[in-house]
Write a structure and sequence with these properties.
The chain has 20 helices and 2 strands. By secondary structure, the chain is mainly α. It has a two-stranded antiparallel sheet. The longest helix has 38 residues, at 152-189.
Length: 435
């Protein structure tokens, strides 16, 4: 029970986050320091800290398993993160074992020491991966990663479209350049079968091969190279080649990339809005902000600082254009002040305290929700059933009372039954009109 309470505390996650960040910083310092030192000169403090961090990770996993059981650890909604933590801890333990094994066998390895050391360094990749665990505890980063992951499908098709564009323009430009260079070779060698050879080194480097031309087109729109520097050699070959490259730049920049950016943004927004955890976080954040604003608004209305608002103060508030605009910004209709006051005053005391004020406006903001309409329909049906039962009971008692008081015999009873039937018909008509 004590371990479960410890794991459930917010400070536990904060402590884990601090440990992860400290470990990542230490690994970066170790890499920088070791890059300027010999292997036997590296301080053992880094290894000791690595052992400590590994022990903390293992203790964290053991605490979570003890708190909720292994089934909950392995199958809970956070099971993917739990398994990731377990993999990181196991890989860290393997790294430590390999280090100790390397130290024990170093004298016997001879010339293979460098190869074994490189293998050992590969295991240190897990130290850098540990920083990924920060995403588990910082929800804003998880939102960004989730949004980026949701755009991967669009990214795949975008790259496919760009490859098609690069290939089409690359073939057209490369063909024009090859024809120009072939003509130059024919004129220089007086041979109709001469191999195309460009007189310009830049032209030969950039535009005589389709794969290279595609790569140049990619670099031109991604900032890898100035498109002016690769367009100038084309201008020497033919105005058509230069114009074709200009059309490619304009089309890719102003059409393709802008449309792709818009699709990425739309996918990221839809992904963020469809994620339950993110939607819950945004809803709670908006609700907390609204409650804070309403409490501040209440203090401004409460002129006598009595922590209660009377009907007079409420009406004066609604007469203020700024107050009206403020409430309408929350989609609250302020047309009927008296009705609005009665709706907020739940206990009917004639005054509104701060809790009634906040709760009332929280329920009244925006349009009617489906659940509110369903609740109203349910209450209406319940009222109709209660009215039907009450009218039936009244009719029954009136009929019995009439039979007892009437001096007539059977004819009187029939007349009473006829009256009862007419009253039932009238009751049904009234109830149907209520519905």
């Amino acid at each position: 029970a004590m371990v479960k309470k410890l794991v459930a505390k917010p400070g536990f996650e904060v402590a884990c986050l601090v440990v992860i960040v400290a470990n990542a910083i230490l690994v970066g310092i170790e890499v920088d320091v070791s890059s300027e030192q010999r292997l036997n000169e590296i301080s053992p403090i880094f290894d000791i800290c690595n052992y400590i961090f590994t022990a903390i990770y293992i203790a964290e996993i053991i605490a979570k398993v003890f708190a909720g059981g292994f089934k909950e650890y392995a199958c809970s909604p956070d099971s993917s993160w739990n398994w990731f933590d377990l993999i990181i801890a196991v890989s860290s333990m393997i790294e430590i074992v390999l280090e100790k094994l390397f130290e024990a066998l170093a004298p016997e390895l001879g010339g293979n020491q460098l190869r074994i050391f490189r293998l050992l360094r590969m295991t240190r990749i897990t130290c850098g991966i540990r920083i990924v665990r920060v995403l588990r505890y910082i929800r804003s980063l998880r939102t960004l990663i989730h949004s980026i992951a949701s755009t991967l499908k669009s990214l795949t098709w975008t790259l496919f479209l760009l490859v098609i564009i690069f290939y089409g323009f690359g073939i057209a430009i490369a063909q024009g350049v090859v024809d120009h260079c072939r003509q130059e070779a024919i004129e220089a060698n007086a041979d109709l079968n001469a191999v195309p050879k460009c007189s310009s080194a830049e032209l030969q480097l950039f535009w005589t091969s389709v794969p290279v031309a595609m790569f140049i087109l990619f670099k031109s729109v991604s900032g890898g190279i100035s498109w002016h520097s690769v367009q100038q050699p084309l201008a020497e070959t033919s105005p058509i080649n230069s114009m074709l490259f200009t059309v490619y730049i304009a089309f890719t920049y102003f059409a393709v990339l802008n449309v792709v950016t818009g699709i990425f943004c739309q996918n990221a927004i839809e992904s963020a809005s469809s994620d339950k955890e993110i939607a819950t976080m945004l809803h709670l954040a908006n609700k907390e902000k609204y409650v804070r604003d309403m409490r501040t608004f209440f203090q401004e209305i409460d002129e006598d600082q009595s922590d209660e608002i009377t009907i007079d103060e409420f009406i004066r508030m609604l007469r203020d254009p700024k107050m009206n605009a403020y409430l309408e910004s929350f989609d609250i209709d302020v047309g009927d002040a008296w009705m609005l006051f009665k709706l907020i005053d739940n206990d009917g005391s004639g005054v509104i305290d701060i809790e009634e004020f906040v709760t009332g406006f929280l329920q009244l903001r925006g349009q009617a929700k489906a659940v509110q309409i369903a609740k109203l329909s349910y209450e209406n049906k319940a009222t109709r059933r209660a009215m039907e039962e009450l009218l039936a009971m009244i009719d029954e008692h009136i009929g019995v009372l009439g039979d007892r008081l009437a001096p007539g015999g059977l004819a009187r009873q029939r007349h009473s039954r006829s009256s009862l039937a007419s009253r039932m018909s009238l009751r049904s008509s009234c109830v149907s009109r209520m519905g």
